[in-house]
Amino acid sequence: MSRISARIAAIAESATLAVDAKAKALKAAGRPVIGFGAGEPDFPTPDYIVEAASAAAKVVANHRYTPTPGLPELREAIVTKTKRDSNYEITVDQVLVTNGGKQAVYQAFASIVDPGDEVLLPSPYWTTYPEAIKLAGGKSVEVFADETQNYLVTVDQLEAARTPKTKVLLFCSPSNPTGSVYTPEQAKAIGEWALKHNIWVICDEIYEHLLYDGATAPSLPVLVPGLADTCIILNGVAKTYAMTGWRVGWMIGPKDVIKAATNLQSHLTSNVSNVSQRAAIAALTGNLDAVHTMGEAFNRRRKLIVGLLNEIPGFECPTPQGAFYVYPSVKGVLGKTIRGKVPTTSAELASLILEEVEVAAVPGEAFGPSGYLRFSYATSDEDIVEGIGRIKKLLTE
């Protein structure tokens, strides 16, 4: 008899966190590693948010349990913020505050997926999605769009993958890992297709404020109002406000789904840290000046890293319009001899790059098919120049 349950034993470690941990361990050992693995802003949380948390820590009421679905003030702030940023009108009982976006992802799938249900998963995808689907008993059906499509799936591709068992579509725009953004027309067509076939849509909007070159990412239930009753929106403060460590996310959805997810959370984690919730209130009710300042830096780095990557022979890097990732194809490098080694997969290439020039990137296998690397440009301009420069030197020796 196995010591570990089959359900949990089947779950893979987060590849992005694993790469980040390895890079940090090497740096701690004195190695000059440059890490492009972690998906988190390299800026401190804005001062006014930290100050709100500091004040909240001294209030005795915040030392106690509070309602599982979230502090009433935070849920109201999320309602107001959703109207402000998305023009989507919701009510407080459609909101559940979660311990980071990952808990929202897990609970969304757990609340609507039954064993045997199929979930259409556009690929490349964030590494956590298939594991959350698996935990819920569902089956991921990957729908792959390569660099020639700017990593954006089409309605025709989704329709070809649809079966009588299809229950859910995962929709993420701007995308992790590619940074690609669906146009409003593309998103609306996908929403209308899902509505026509009575397919739930789980929308991950965590990168909603990180957009460039005039791109927009309207919320699906705004584009297709009829979708509101079969749509769950996932979001949080992590990426927008540089608050990855504060662990505050949320779900927005139909009242019955939110009630079911709240019941689950009441047994799973109870309420989110009250100090973090108070910080999130300050973030959502404050202005977006700090967000825009970070966005300007990300935009500069985006242009820098795309230009440098496209100078490397065998790399092909589309220009992303959102998030803080680039996702170059490295298929032109695979199969070539590099310092006596011949990588045939992007996983092998990523390992070789880390070993030979101490630069950490996440291989495409973490997000779908091999042949790609993900680089996060949520790091300094100097590290981008140095890190990509090391890779170029390695591959052009």
- Secondary structural class: alpha/beta
Strand tally = 12
Task: Return the domain count.
Answer: 2
The helix/strand order is HHEHHEHEHEHEHEHEEHHHEHEEEH
Number of helices in the DSSP assignment = 14
Which class of the largest domain in CATH terms? Alpha Beta
Strand order of the largest sheet: 2-8-7-6-5-3-4
Architecture of the largest domain, according to CATH? Answer: 3-Layer(aba) Sandwich
Explain the layout of strands and helices.
Layout: H1 6-9, H2 15-28, E1 34-35, H3 47-56, H4 72-86, E2 95-98, H5 100-112, E3 118-123, H6 128-135, E4 139-144, H7 155-161, E5 166-172, H8 184-196, E6 200-204, H9 220-223, E7 231-236, E8 249-252, H10 255-268, H11 274-285, H12 289-309, E9 325-326, H13 346-357, E10 359-360, E11 362-363, E12 373-376, H14 381-395
Parallel strand pairs: 1-10, 3-4, 3-5, 5-6, 6-7
Antiparallel strand pairs: 2-8, 7-8, 9-12, 11-12
Helix pairs in contact: 3-11, 4-11, 5-6, 5-10, 12-14
